[in-house]
Amino acid sequence: MGLKQDLVFPIAKRWIAGKDMKTGLEAAKEANKNGYFALLNFLGEDVTDPTLAESQCGEYTALQKAIYDSSIKGSVSVKLTQLGLLTDEVVMKKRLAALASAASSMGQQLWLDMEGSRFTDKTLETYRELHETHHNTGVALQAYMRRSEADLSSLIEAGAMVRLVKGAYNESRDLVYGSRKETAENYVRLLRQLFERAENFTVATHDSALIDEARRLSSSHDARFEFGMLRGIRDELKKELVSSGFKVVDYIPYGDQWYSYSVRRIKEHPSNVWLLLRSLV
Ligand SMILES: Cc1cc2nc3c(=O)[nH]c(=O)nc-3n(C[C@H](O)[C@H](O)[C@H](O)COP(=O)(O)OP(=O)(O)OC[C@H]3O[C@@H](n4cnc5c(N)ncnc54)[C@H](O)[C@@H]3O)c2cc1C
Predict the structure, then answer these.
(1) Is the full-model pTM beyond 0.70?
(2) Whose alpha carbon is nearest atom 42 of ligand 1?
(3) What is the pLDDT of residues 22-50, one digit of tens each?
(4) Measured from the CB, is residue 227 less than 6 Å from ligand 1?
(5) How many domains would you assign to the chain?
(6) Which atom of ligand 1 is nearest to the CA of 166?
(7) pLDDT tens across 51-88, in order?
(8) The domain spanning residue 190 has which CATH number?
């Protein structure tokens, strides 16, 4: 590890399980003990080496089996650029279909993360194709994107499983809502659509106002939904939701590509920058 990584790793440990599958599985068991389902992610994206894309897919195949063999209540969530979107799209789709079939045979789901906007069309197109034959699959949709209201409408029409998130990438102003307030307002619009029209979805946020809105909507709609949160964030709230009878999914990343994921989490919340600075003195 470089010096920068050495300094960040102790802080990053709160958001990532560790560097290998064993640590991911341990964290998933711990999540299950707390009453949460586990959604495991092997960190990696923008893979341009075909051999690496193949081996990343191999990790997921082994991970699905390990989840099953360890009787963990959980599934995996993948990124298309990790499985070879940038190296060979046809091969990537075959890998995805194989992961979806394996998930189905082991009673698991397969989720697609949503990446930066240059992959939105491709991710949705690939998901739609996959979902036609594999109903155990879901896709993330980002409330900061102006296009998401229309995308959500057609995904619901197709019977998709959607994980609603705010969005984590730096995007150009013409594509996304400009302020946190506007993104939150759009999140509420999309949330209402989900409660009114969708069958099965994930409310993936740590934002108390949005979680309260989902709780309110759930009391007047008969929707099957779950709350999704990231490992190491708002753990008390997760416990409270479980004790109130809600299903909670803990998204658990692991792997040696932990650095950029952790920097994203640090930048998201100012208090984390203080945490980082405090750890240096
Ligand atoms: C289950 C799950 C899956 C996700 N999948 C994707 C995906 O596929 N694609 C994508 O673009 N994004 C994804 N994200 C990330 C998401 O887009 C946001 O970047 C992230 O969830 C922060 O937004 P928020 O809704 O929690 O609201 P925020 O307004 O960022 O946070 C609300 C509150 O939560 C707490 N909080 C949030 N983040 C932190 C933090 N890092 N450290 C400490 N406290 C924090 C704070 O109390 C904060 O006030 C996912 C998020 C979750 C929960």
Answers:
(1) yes
(2) 269
(3) 999 999 999 999 999 999 999 999 999 99
(4) no
(5) 1
(6) 17
(7) 999 999 999 999 999 999 999 999 999 999 999 999 99
(8) 3.20.20.220
